[in-house]
Amino acid sequence: MILTLKANATKPQVDSIVKKIKELGFTPHTTHGKEVTIIGVIGENAILTKDIFEAMAGVELVTPISKPYKLVSREFKKENTVIDVGHGVLIGGDEVVVMAGPCSVDTKERLFHTAEAVKAAGARVLRGGAFKPRTSPYAFQGHGEKALRYLADARKQTNLPIVTEVMNINDVKLVEEYADIIQVGARNIQNFDLLKVVGKTKKPVLLKRGMSTTIQEWLLSAEYVMSNGNYNVILCERGIRTFETSTRFTLDLNAVPVLRHLTHLPIIVDPSHGVGIREYIPAMAKAAVAVGADGLILEVHPKPEEALSDGPQSLLPEQFAKLMGELRAVALAVGRTL
Ligand code: PEP
Ligand code: MN
């Protein structure tokens, strides 16, 4: 339920509203918008207390939120959320933000080489995995903290903010120290305990869709992060499982306009995992920008045949640079910059 406050609500009135919300066992989430201040009253069956709040001084309007997810919903917040990830990069504004880099960080030299190359081509965020969720326990699991240090060094060198994945609760603090954006991967989208801990961090969170999660389940996962206090959630479509086996997953670009309608959160697309085959990635990257994505995340590696993970879907730096030129034209055509 949303309380829209009167423009002239006084501080004591606001304080007593917040006190009442807590007394009733709910959590207040306050947003100071351009024109009005709203307070989300979040908790099970909050709507049953509608009359109490309607009668309180300072409250203009009480509106129910019809969806099971609340803070995430467009009903809760009308304007698009723009997230400042530092280093001058805003996600969810006019600019289509491209994040690029290797699937996993391997050597420092290669990471630096890739970081410089993607930056020169116009990437705004550097990606790189330190903790890798691998299907096989025998596959490379990531260089861990050493890779985080390399990423931090590459950020120092290029001034690109970094996005990297956290897989378990015990590593959240460490990853938060290094990362500008904390990634929660497809396989952890419904690891609710991890979502709660990530929700208590101060860094923006890139929340990838699970390969078998519906949009509603995905938004409820985002709600876990937001309801724990971290409002800076970026949603990332990365392909879902269908009967089709010609590509690694099926990139669900339907999700972009659907999410745009349902949520105020920024939406980015990962064609690398969604398609899984290098030669098809540029087409789907362009399509993602055309349907209104706020950004892309792309895997790039200078020697894909030697990459420690996801070589077959990694673009060469020169392919990435060519694609960036094409993406710029698409962005312009849909009223965005890149
Ligand atoms: C990745 O970004 O390298 C990754 C493992 O992605 P996903 O969680 O979408 O599979
Ligand atoms: Mn990968």
Task: Give the helix/strand layout.
Blueprint: E1 2-5, H1 11-23, E2 27-32, E3 37-42, H2 50-54, E4 59-63, E5 83-84, E6 90-91, E7 97-101, H3 108-121, E8 125-127, H4 145-158, E9 162-165, H5 172-178, E10 181-184, H6 192-198, E11 205-208, H7 215-227, E12 233-237, H8 255-262, E13 267-269, H9 271-275, H10 281-290, E14 295-299, H11 317-333
Parallel strand pairs: 7-8, 7-14, 8-9, 9-10, 10-11, 11-12, 12-13, 13-14
Antiparallel strand pairs: 1-3, 1-4, 2-3, 5-6
Helix pairs in contact: 3-4, 3-11, 6-7, 10-11
Bound molecules: phosphoenolpyruvate and manganese (II) ion.
Manganese (II) ion binds at residues 103, 273, 299, 309-310.
CATH class of the largest domain: Alpha Beta
Strand order of the main beta sheet, please? 7-8-9-10-11-12-13-14
Largest sheet: 8 strands, parallel, barrel
Regions with little confidence, pLDDT below 50 for 5+ residues: none
CATH architecture field of the largest domain: Alpha-Beta Barrel
Order of SSEs: EHEEHEEEEHEHEHEHEHEHEHHEH
The small molecules bound here are: phosphoenolpyruvate, manganese (II) ion
The helix/strand class is: alpha/beta
